[in-house]
Design brief:
Blueprint: H1 2-22, E1 31-36, E2 50-53, E3 65-70, E4 95-99, E5 103-106, H2 121-124, E6 126-129, E7 134-140, E8 146-153, E9 165-170, E10 190-191, H3 192-197, E11 203-209, E12 216-221, E13 226-227, E14 229-236, H4 240-260
Parallel strand pairs: 1-3
Antiparallel strand pairs: 1-14, 2-3, 4-7, 5-6, 6-13, 7-12, 8-11, 8-14, 9-10, 9-12
The structure holds calcium ion (3 copies).
One calcium ion (CA) binds near residues 38, 126, 127 and 228.
Length: about 260
């Protein structure tokens, strides 16, 4: 009995050890793809399942891209088991949670993308939606010392000509950094047909910092908010020395101007 317990403990220890050494932190250059809305449960790691798509190669490394399937609309649960675009299992602290989602749906009829903007058609064929109110997707466990590019994809044609406007924000601001009002191209009153479906465009938020809780919160509000996919890429903050040199340059410029006048 003692021997068996010892063996069991050894197995558990090794399992915990190997899963911890396999986990990868988010580094500069890490890309994470989320396919929002596909059917399917959790995978064997108890977290989000993944699929590989060969139709596009977003990062151009010649390998199929990994997409995490966020299909759980129950809310209030942070789902881990997330992989980066190369299939590396990320730290268990990296999780995604959905709030305010009414349901998910999917079909190919309202999608004109055909692998546009490095997003597989299959990914765009599924989505989350609500009929009113605000949907939120919160990505937690990010490195606050990095910065992020967030791309939101909300783009389909409606069979009834109903292409409601929705506001899309990340951490409470539009893509131009303002809290609004702003332009549709920055996410204020985004028309999923004329702003997304026809030009086959996503909405890119550049230079986003994770908030205090290491969070990136994407919100979708309006009469019929929808979202089909999210992509996040991490990058390093500009070197402090470069900023310092720029700052010194500006001070110097001010000094020389003052001397002339
Ligand atoms: Ca790839
Ligand atoms: Ca997984
Ligand atoms: Ca989708």
């Amino acid at each position: 009995m003692i021997k068996k317990t010892t063996q069991l403990l050894a197995v558990l220890t090794i399992t915990a050890w190997t899963s911890s050494i396999n986990a990868t932190p988010i580094l500069a250059g890490t890309i994470i793809n989320f396919d929002i809305g596909p059917l399917g449960g959790l995978d064997q790691d108890g977290g989000l399942p993944q699929s590989l798509y060969s139709s596009v190669d977003c990062d151009g490394d010649g390998d199929d891209d990994v997409w995490n399937h966020m299909g759980q609309t129950t809310g209030s649960t942070f789902f881990g088991g997330i992989q980066d675009i190369d299939g590396n299992e990320l730290d268990a602290t990296v999780t995604l949670r959905a709030d305010g989602v009414l349901n998910r749906n999917g079909n190919a009829n309202n999608n004109a993308w055909n692998n546009a903007q490095d997003v597989p058609t299959e990914v765009m064929n599924t989505w989350y939606y609500n009929v009113s109110g605000t949907m939120q997707l919160s990505l937690s466990g990010l490195d606050a010392s990095l910065m992020y590019t967030v791309e939101l994809f909300n783009s389909f044609g409606s069979w009834a000509g109903i292409n409601n406007l929705s506001d899309m924000m990340v951490n409470g601001v539009f893509a131009d950094g303002s809290a609004g009002p702003s332009t549709a191209s920055a996410g204020n009153g985004w028309n999923r047909y004329t702003d997304g479906f026809i030009p086959k465009a996503g909405l890119t938020f550049s230079n986003v910092s994770a908030t205090g809780g290491n969070l990136l919160v994407s919100t979708f509000s309006g009469p019929n908010p929808t979202v089909q996919a999210i992509r996040i890429e991490a990058f390093s903050m500009p070197e402090p020395s470069i900023l310092a040199i720029l700052g010194l340059g500006l001070v110097g410029l001010g000094w020389s101007r003052r001397k002339k006048s």
